[in-house]
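User: Okay, second chain of the day. Same drill as before: sequence in, structure tokens out.
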Amino acid sequence: MNLETCYYVVESIDGDYAHLKRTDKEADGLKLVARALLPDEIREGSRLKYEMLQYQIVD
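Assistant: Same drill. Structure tokens below.
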């Protein structure tokens, strides 16, 4: 199980999915994540932290 902390920015929202771009290290392409797994308050441009299998908004 991968328990590293990762940081993302919401690049776009497409219906029930969000496209996330990793910001803490280089990654190929965007990560597609179901919005049900993300905080309800996300918007395009929101910054997220992924840790312990959960996403949370960071300032």
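The chain has a mean pLDDT of 95.

User: Thanks, on to the next one.
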